[in-house]
Specification:
16 strands, eight-stranded mixed β-sheet, BirA Bifunctional Protein, domain 2, binds adenosine monophosphate, about 20% strand, 2 domains, Rossmann fold, elongated, 15 helices
Length: about 425
């Protein structure tokens, strides 16, 4: 017998954990609606070139982690699973002529991403993100809107003490001179650089600032800071973003070392951390402005900004902050029975209750009543509908499992009676 397992770096979300993710998705979608970010879905795979060109060839995500799909001989294109959502969404923006829509186009998506990374705690090969993008607005107000939206997601989903780190990483006017200064600095420390980092120095020095290598922390502490090299327009933009954040009361900290791992970022860059955990490469989420990306992917020059919030890391942190499992949405009622012959009646009664909007499971097996009631209780059901001998007189038992009380109800009144009881119960919980 083969023993099959989920692929390395992936995991099954069993009901308690999947219930969490469903809730994250609801909170995310509700927030996106509240802020006017409309849903979009793009394929989970794209032409590899969308990522190579958009994200950049000399990035961890493309160089090491791109989950390439084996090419079939009859196909001219090479494909890869999406490692992040922005490149695909911007590809869709260009493909569908969204630059003719009212700008900015505000979009949101929730879905799985794929990176062929070495699996470890909080780092998977398939993980989920809540992503928003605003394409066609140079900011600075929209930058603050998006940073605040991400911050609110964490508080509404129940993660406490989330800190926002912000930085500006300049644009094509000021970054080249900064990069020169950075390269010169690292050349001065060449002997101390790990080989992989030394190799990248001439190709993409910014990546070294973002390096996960432990020995880079010391070297990076004294590296030149982009914030000391910003041109006047980037400086003004960054100041205005901070003023907008102050005005809407988002707590943040300027973090001059924050550069983000993808090439397409310009100006505003930000990350969310659980306070006190910035050092551990465990950003809960992050994002930034990408004013050159639309053009890189074949569109007219168009500014944009967005974020990707990792839901797996939210689940990890929530698991630490409040370990009780999430049960998802509890049932209102379970239809149970004393007479094992009556499965048609049970199914018919449950079907009627569901049609009326009540969350109802029917016990369709043949076990004893005691077992059925235990199972109903385990499922969080507040009520049991007991189908027994009284059915011949058109009546069923309605048992309040929490209170331990029971009464007979005419079948013709059941939907109304149960509906009223459920409403009363929810009301009691709310008040
Ligand atoms: P990045 O685009 O790398 O900044 O990723 C944005 C967010 O996605 C991170 O802050 C994480 O929350 C999440 N994330 C990125 N890579 C992974 C991964 N391999 N496993 C789980 N979550 C990830």
């Amino acid at each position: 017998m083969p023993s099959f397992r989920a692929p390395r770096g992936t995991r099954d979300l069993l009901p308690n954990e999947a219930a969490r993710f469903v809730r994250f998705g609801r909170v995310a979608r509700d927030l996106a609606d509240r802020y006017g970010y409309r849903p979009i879905e793009t394929p989970i795979f794209e032409q590899s070139a969308v990522f190579e060109r958009g994200i950049g060839e000399v990035t961890d995500v493309v160089e090491k982690e791109l989950f390439r799909i084996a090419r079939r001989t009859e196909e001219a294109e090479a494909w890869a699973l999406r490692p992040e959502p922005t490149a695909g969404i911007v590809r869709a923006y260009v493909q569908h002529g969204m630059q003719t829509w009212p700008q900015p186009v505000r979009l949101a998506m929730i879905g799985p991403m794929f990176r062929y990374d070495r699996p470890q705690a909080g780092r998977y090969r398939q993980f989920w993100q809540f992503d928003v993008e605003a394409i066609g607005d140079p900011g600075p107000a929209i930058d603050a809107e998006i940073i605040e939206l991400g911050h609110r997601f964490y508080s509404e989903v129940g993660v406490t003490e989330v800190e926002v780190l912000v930085n500006s990483i300049g644009d094509k006017a000021c970054r080249p001179a900064y990069l020169e200064a950075l390269v010169a600095y690292y050349r001065g420390h060449l002997a101390a650089l790990p080989p992989a980092e030394a190799d990248r120095l001439e190709r993409n020095a910014l990546r070294l600032l973002d390096s996960k290598h432990p020995s880079m922390a010391v070297i990076n502490a004294d590296a030149p800071r982009i914030t000391d090299h910003l041109c006047a327009t980037c400086e003004a933009h960054f100041g205005a973003v901070r003023a907008h954040l102050d005005a809407i009361g988002v707590p943040y900290r300027v973090s001059p070392g924050l550069v983000r791992g993808l090439d397409y970022y310009t100006r505003t860059a930000f990350e969310y951390y659980v306070a006190g955990r910035e050092g551990q490469q465990q950003a809960l989420g992050g994002g930034g402005r990408y004013d050159g990306l639309v053009e890189l992917l074949g569109g007219k020059p168009t500014p944009g900004i967005g974020f990707g919030l990792g839901l797996d890391r939210v689940a990890l942190v929530l698991g630490e902050q409040s370990p009780a499992p999430e049960d998802g949405v509890p049932l209102d009622a379970v239809v149970v029975f004393t007479d094992p012959g009556a499965s048609v009646e049970r199914l018919r009664i449950a079907t009627g209750l569901r049609a009326a909007g009540l969350r109802t499971r029917a016990d369709l097996g043949r076990r004893r009543l005691g077992r059925q009631l235990e199972a109903a209780d385990r499922d969080g059901a507040h009520f049991a509908v007991i189908v027994g001998d009284e059915l011949q007189e058109g009546q069923v038992g309605l048992r309040d499992l929490k209170a331990g009380t029971q009464r007979l109800v005419p079948l013709s009144d059941l939907t109304r009676e149960l509906g009223r009881a459920v409403k009363q119960h929810h009301h009691g919980e709310g008040g």
